[in-house]
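Let us work through a complete example step by step.
Step 1: write down the sequence.
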Amino acid sequence: MQLHKKIILIFSFGLCIGAGTIYWFRHQTNNNNVVTPTMPIPTEQQSEPVAPKPKPEPAQHTHPLIQSLQQEDQRLWKELERCGVDKAACISYKTKYRNEYKQIRKEFEDKALKKPISKKTLQTIYRIFDEFNIDKNAIAIIPFNNPGCPAGATDHQLLIDERQLLQFPEEAQDYTIAHEVQHIVHQDDSTSFALENLLNLTEEDFDNPNHIFNKRSRFEEKRADALASLKKAKYARGNILFMKKLLSKKKKESAGITHPKEKTRIALAETILKKYHAPNSTLA
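Step 2: predict the structure and record it as tokens.
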């Protein structure tokens, strides 16, 4: 296997071209469309690192929606095992190539806009960081210009296209940031980085909605939506507002390859708002 030069960033809201709403930094290819490797990954001749012991699975949560998400997560890891990649292998890969991952993602900092993010938006970001117990000193907040994508996240970066973000209602802005924070909490970007290489994905795989990589991606987006929307009613309302405005701009739903379709995301947020944020309801 060779490490692809393709750089994947989990941009959750883009109107970008391609398979779904992820913005792809496409790899460079030669005339034969052969991927140019940028670093080696272990071969049979190389000694494999000792895989760190995986963290114990979290206890099943008492909240029914969170419980359902945990069960879906476990099912997807079992499906990945049938493809030859288990959770321990993914953790081991992320550990071994942590520095390379950070170096690749440094490209976003190198391309940061000179105009800083406004004080008001930063205050909103820091407030939401506090709500989800994120250390603001551990996350680089990067002003970024990315058509169609007001925000994105890696494990250690929050990318903000403030010009686009401010085009949405305030509750939708808050939801956008709260959603991206979930990707940071769960380290979704480095998981995608590891799986892309461990599965040795092809262009056809990226465009196949039934490939386990895309199933995993859609689940991570669903989880980010759900956990943000469960936190506060205004995030659930913002989720709905954001998706409806996105649909009004696009005129049609996305293909649903890397992300759930917009109407599916709206339905989930509406269910959360009605079931868990209604008067007299309680969140476990």
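Step 3: interpret the result. The CA atoms of residues 252 and 262 lie 9 Å apart.
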